Amino acid sequence: MKQNIYNQLLQGKLGNKKMLAILLDPDKVDLNTVEILIEKINQSPATHVFVGGSIVENNILSELIQKIKQDCQLPVVLFPGNPSQISDLADAILFLSLISGRNPDYLIEHQVKAAPILKQTQLEIISTGYILIESGTETAVERVSKTKPLDRNNPELALATAQAGEMLGNKLVYLEAGSGAKQAVPLKMIELVSQNIEIPLLVGGGIVDLQGIQNAYDSGADLVIIGTAFENDMNFFK
Ligand code: 1GP
Question: Which atom of ligand 1 sits closest to the CA of residue 141?
């Protein structure tokens, strides 16, 4: 099994080299024009491409990854909403457990279903404590997972959740406001969590401008995920 992507993330954190992932949702990408999108990714400061979504109803996951791999050197990391979103063509998978929620399906059931499938692949498996933070309105993660996000005004609870995830052996913590969120994860929360965990911190959801990315970095995020803003404007990083 490959091990290099997690090491890169760890080295990034240790060397204070901030990282950026562009998230592509296979349901929203048009395969006929994806070459242009990939070119824009190549021109951007992205260090990773994440692929996935809460729903992913069509079957283009592997085809999309194949196209990305053809024209882009960045590591491709699966960010799956459920066990059907696995493709051996990617480099790694965020093996998510939704630890802010109390729905056993998203804490362990999906993982049990995915494990034998993952065993058949070469994917690097990166266990990730996934923490959903309240962001103004109901997001797709909340709706699909049927879990409540954590109170955005309670950074201590987010920290305790992140620390529990770390103690359980998660290799990453992902603070998620939800795709297209009205409000991003509060900076104070990012700060408190990043200062009190040892593992890399990912932050995403509702970040819509370059200043928002910088603010997340300055607060301690090691890697920021941008989805909707890039979907809406391929020249976002110009
Ligand atoms: C969603 O954190 C990612 O899981 C990205 O969110 O689409 O709001 O950028 P946005």
Answer: 4
- Give the Å distance between the CA of 224 and the centre of ligand 1: 9
Q: Please give the model's pTM, rounded to 2 decimal places.
A: 0.97
Confidence of residue 86 (pLDDT cuts 50, 70, 90): very high
Q: Please list every protein residue whose CB sits less than 6 Å from any atom of ligand 1.
A: 23, 176, 179-181, 204-207, 225-229
What percent of the chain has a predicted confidence (pLDDT) above 90? 92
Rounded to the nearest 10 degrees, the angle between the axes of helix 187-195 and helix 155-167 is: 40
User: Could you say which of 3.30.465.10, 3.40.50.720, 3.20.20.390, 3.40.50.300 is the CATH number of the domain covering 5-232?
Assistant: 3.20.20.390
Higher pLDDT, 167 or 56: 167
Task: Give Cα separations from 208 to 7, 21, 99, 184 (angstroms).
Answer: 28, 14, 25, 9
How far is the centre of ligand 1, averaged over its atoms, from the C-alpha of 23 (Å)? 7
CB 157 within 8 A of CB 202: no
20 three-class SS: strand
Q: Is the pLDDT of residue 193 over 80?
A: yes
The rounded distance, in Å, linking the Cα atoms of 6 and 137 is: 32
Q: Are strands 76-78 and 92-98 parallel, antiparallel or unpaired?
A: parallel
Q: Which atom of ligand 1 is nearest to the CA of 204?
A: 2
